[in-house]
């Protein structure tokens, strides 16, 4: 039953992604459909249209497998190493700095969300 639930949650996330892609293609927006899908999911979670628990198992599985999703991008970069000849150090520096910024912002966001979640749980008398 756990695997069926997990599969359905991943399928629902995929549907949200596809809705974003459809919106992007119909409106001819310069924003990628995957980003539109994430904005839709964020809005649905923020306005409590959907509950976080509805996606918890599927998203946990996807997060555990996240490093595998970066392998094609890494291979793609290696395939185009000649683009880095002229301004390679600048490009690598920008990539490292932007990665560091993303890591720091993600860390602060997850810490604040976890603190908020812990505070709400304590107010309700629950233990995490």
From TrEMBL:
InterPro entries, per the entry: LrgA/CidA
Coiled-coil region(s): none
Transmembrane among keywords: yes
Domain of life: Bacteria
Alphabetized PANTHER family for the sequence: HOLIN-LIKE PROTEIN CIDA, HOLIN-LIKE PROTEIN CIDA-RELATED
Membrane topology label: Multi-pass membrane protein
Protein name: CidA/LrgA family holin-like protein
Source lineage: Bacteria, Bacillati, Bacillota, Bacilli, Bacillales
Entry annotated with the keyword Transmembrane helix: yes
Keywords: Cell membrane, Membrane, Transmembrane, Transmembrane helix
Spans traversing the lipid bilayer: none
Main location (coarse class): membrane
Subcellular location: Cell membrane
């Amino acid at each position: 039953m756990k695997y069926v639930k997990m599969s359905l949650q991943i399928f629902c996330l995929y549907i949200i992604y596809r809705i974003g892609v459809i919106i992007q293609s119909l409106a001819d927006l310069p924003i990628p459909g995957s980003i539109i899908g994430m904005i839709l999911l964020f809005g649905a979670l923020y306005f409590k249209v959907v509950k976080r628990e509805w996606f918890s198992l599927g998203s946990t599985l996807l997060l555990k497998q996240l490093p595998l999703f970066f392998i094609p991008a890494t291979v793609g970069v290696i395939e185009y190493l000649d683009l880095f000849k002229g301004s390679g150090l600048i490009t690598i520096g920008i990539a490292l700095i932007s990665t560091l910024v993303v890591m720091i912002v993600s860390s602060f966001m997850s810490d604040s969300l976890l603190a908020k979640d812990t505070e709400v749980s304590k107010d309700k008398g629950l233990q995490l």
